[in-house]
């Protein structure tokens, strides 16, 4: 959780500040899309590079495979994220239509659902009946309450297009970094791979740190966790390429 100054905390919880804040629409956040795209982009491209180097392929092959996977996998991941968020929105819309239909057809049954939901929260007697009367007096509020309390659907839904765009951008930008050393053709493959590994490790660490700053978590630990995750994936790719080279007998192209 982010640390805030006590004075700022008290100021944000004054009646007028609370009223203004609650009148605003809930804000969606795309940091998770950026983190997911960045990590997966870096893992994907460096894993391809590691596998190619482990298999004994020259730098040009590693570069071609890396960029090909960068574009194809980035697009695929963006589409998947779009479809996932779109499906979530469509599911929420279908539930909203269903609840509106139920309220029109069996209002007493829907009122009883509201009553039992809030009874489980500890309300009873006149207070419970006042809550039921207040919520069911406004159909829109009634429907939104049913969506939240019965189905667990919240108001904040991510825009599928924005989510897909953020994922693709993070995937391509971060995923390009481990490929940059292979553009320096004058360097031997071993140095190119060493620099690529260092850049990939830096990207993994910085992504973890960025995530920690947004969510107020310990920066060093978050960076190291992300670094270990990406390093493990790259290590497995390199090992797989090396083993297959030995089994198949490929000594490079």
What labels describe this entry?
10 helices, mainly alpha, 253 residues
What is this entry, summarized?
By secondary structure, the chain is mainly alpha-helical. It is 78% helix and 0% strand. GO terms for molecular function: manganese ion transmembrane transporter activity.
Characterise this structure.
By secondary structure, the chain is mainly alpha-helical. It has one domain (31-247). It is 78% helix and 0% strand. The protein has 10 helices and no strands. The protein has helices at 6-12, 15-23, 31-54, 59-105, 107-119, 125-136, 139-149, 160-176, 189-215, 219-248. Helix 3 (31-54) packs antiparallel against helix 4 and helix 9 packs antiparallel against helix 10 (219-248). The model has no long low-confidence stretch (mean pLDDT 82). One of its GO terms (biological process) is intracellular manganese ion homeostasis. It is found in: Endomembrane system. InterPro entries: Ccc1_fam (IPR008217).
Query: What's the Cα radius of gyration?
Result: 26 Å
Mean pLDDT: 82
Provide the helix percentage: over 70%
List low-pLDDT spans.
Answer: none
Largest sheet: none
The CA-CA distance between the termini, in Å, is 52 Å
* Beta-strand content: under 5%
The H/E string reads HHHHHHHHHH
Shape: elongated
Summed up, the helix count is 10
DSSP summary, beta strand count: 0
* Helical/strand content category: mainly alpha
The domain count comes to 1
The protein's oligomeric status is: single chain
């Amino acid at each position: 959780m982010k640390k805030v100054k006590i004075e700022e905390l008290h100021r944000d919880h004054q009646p007028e500040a609370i009223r203004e804040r609650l009148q605003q629409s809930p804000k969606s956040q795309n940091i998770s899309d950026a983190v997911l795209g960045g990590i997966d982009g870096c893992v994907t491209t460096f894993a391809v590079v590691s596998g190619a180097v482990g298999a004994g392929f020259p730098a040009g092959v590693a570069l071609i495979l890396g960029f090909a996977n960068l574009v194809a996998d980035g697009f695929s991941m963006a589409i998947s994220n779009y479809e996932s968020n779109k499906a979530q929105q469509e599911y929420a819309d279908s539930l909203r239509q269903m609840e509106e239909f139920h309220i029109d057809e069996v209002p007493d049954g829907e009122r009883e659902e509201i009553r039992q939901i809030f009874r489980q929260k500890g309300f009873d007697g006149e207070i419970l009946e006042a809550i039921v009367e207040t919520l069911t007096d406004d159909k829109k509020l009634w429907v939104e309450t049913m969506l939240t309390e019965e189905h667990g659907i919240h108001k904040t839904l991510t825009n599928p297009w924005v989510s897909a765009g953020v994922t693709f951008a993070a995937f391509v930008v971060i995923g390009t970094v481990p490929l940059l050393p292979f553009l320096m053709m004058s360097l031997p493959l071993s140095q190119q791979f060493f620099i690529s590994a260092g850049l990939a490790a830096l990207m993994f660490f910085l992504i973890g740190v960025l995530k920690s700053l947004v969510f107020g978590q310990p920066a060093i630990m978050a960076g190291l966790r992300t670094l270990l995750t990406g390093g493990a994936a790259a290590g497995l790719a390199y090992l797989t390429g090396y083993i297959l080279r030995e089994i198949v007998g490929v000594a490079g192209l």
